[in-house]
Write a structure and sequence with these properties.
The protein is built from 4 helices and no strands. The longest helix has 30 residues.
Length: 127
């Protein structure tokens, strides 16, 4: 456990000092991604070599699907509640201003012509 804490204690200041170097940040990102892939592969290898676990795979698989579907349903319900209750100001209390509906009172971006340049209105210009 001391080795793990030591790695974090050295890694955090090193990351802080090297955060402005894009090459280092990119290399660390790629290394982290591939390390996670390797860990997941090794985890799958260890689980696949466990005879007792493989024997119960059908029962465990069914439970995993049920838990996953329940988690998905809960996430969708929480997102719906967040959007329709919290973000609409329903819980802000009496007299609180709710946010305007999307598109109301917002400035629109200038239109672009077919060449990608900002279109201008020349109707008031003289020829």
């Amino acid at each position: 456990m001391i080795v793990e804490i030591g790695c974090i204690a050295v890694g955090v200041p090193a990351g802080y000092l090297l955060r402005t170097r894009p090459a280092v940040v990119g290399a660390v990102d790629r290394l982290t991604t591939w390390s996670i892939y390797a860990l997941l592969f090794l985890l799958g290898l260890a689980l696949g070599s466990d005879d007792a676990l493989v024997a119960k795979a059908g029962d465990i698989g069914l439970r995993a699907v049920v838990i996953s579907m329940a988690s998905l349903a809960g996430s969708v319900a929480a997102g719906w509640l967040l959007q329709h209750v919290l973000l609409r100001g329903a819980l802000d209390g009496p007299g609180a201003a709710s946010p305007p509906p999307l598109g109301a009172g917002t400035a629109t971006a200038p239109a672009l012509n077919h060449a990608g340049d900002h279109a201008t209105d020349h109707s008031g210009d003289r020829p």
